[in-house]
Specification:
Layout: E1 2-6, E2 27-30, E3 33-42, E4 47-52, E5 58-63, H1 68-77, H2 79-91, E6 104-107, E7 110-113, E8 115-116, E9 122-125, E10 128-131, H3 140-165, E11 172-176, E12 183-185, E13 190-194, H4 202-217, H5 223-232, H6 236-246
Parallel strand pairs: 3-5, 11-13
Antiparallel strand pairs: 1-4, 2-3, 4-5, 6-7, 8-9, 9-10, 12-13
């Protein structure tokens, strides 16, 4: 849940009179609630961004050359939007975070059943078999470790393949446990991907990779950037829709 505002300025550095980061303890009043808010500068950001996090706190991203004071004013103008997001957050169903035998998880874009091996020493799903100490209780730590290893094997080669196909030079690829991003691209040409892409369909995985590769060409989300994305991934809107519908299930 986020809202952004285009940042336009010719300043080359943050005003020295405004601290970075902003002092802690600030709040926004929205929907009759006091919402804790933090402010953080970002070298990548080209817009002021207001985001409501899953824990009910708000975060304002301020462009590196932007003003913290303008970031506050931007957030204060969006309290109606923030109030609506608080209602949505309160009405969102609470999903279990543990993985148990008989339950399902997403793998390569499809929900798959977790089943115990007859020996009780392994968990099976979608042709995978993962050894566990005992197939009872929460088996997520072991299954997740296996999925992360699988992602670390599969994702970097796919990045290199797509980078070569579209003549994009990158320095390295990392697979991480990112909590709020599917991927990122540094100015030095490092692509970082969320291991949970192993849980998404191939077309979503490829869209995220291509999205980050296009940031090598355009380190922003300008109209020119989205033209680059559309050129290499014509059906990216479908991938965006899948992500919007399923993100809450891939925590």
């Amino acid at each position: 849940m986020q809202l952004d505002l285009q940042f336009l300025t010719g300043r080359k550095r943050p005003p020295k009179s405004e601290p970075n980061p902003a002092p802690e303890g600030e709040v926004l009043m929205a929907g009759g609630q006091a919402v804790p808010v933090t402010f953080a500068r970002s070298q990548r950001a080209r817009r002021y961004i207001l985001r409501l996090k899953s824990d009910g706190t708000a975060r304002v991203t301020v462009p590196w050359r932007g003003s913290l004071a303008e970031g506050r004013r931007f957030a204060e103008r969006q309290t109606a939007w923030l109030g609506r997001q608080l209602v949505r957050l309160a009405n969102r169903p609470v999903l279990p975070t543990d993985w148990r035998i008989g339950g399902s998880i997403y793998f390569r874009g499809e929900p798959v059943l977790l089943e115990a091996d007859p020996s009780g020493r392994a968990v099976r799903f979608a042709g995978q078999s993962v050894r566990v100490a005992v197939a009872t209780g929460d088996v997520r730590p072991t299954i997740e470790k296996n999925l992360r290893k699988l992602a670390a094997r599969e994702l970097p080669p796919r990045v290199l393949e797509l980078a070569a196909l579209h003549a994009v030079a990158i320095r390295r690829v990392s697979v991480r446990n990112q909590r709020s991003r599917w991927g990122s691209c540094s100015r030095s040409g490092t692509i970082s991907l969320n291991w949970r892409l192993i849980q998404t369909p191939d077309f979503v995985r490829d869209y995220i990779i291509l999205h980050e590769l296009m940031h090598v060409r355009q380190m922003n989300h300008s109209a020119r950037f989205w033209r680059e994305v559309a050129a290499v991934c014509p059906g990216y809107e479908e991938a965006e829709r899948w992500i919007k519908l399923h993100s809450a299930l891939l925590r």
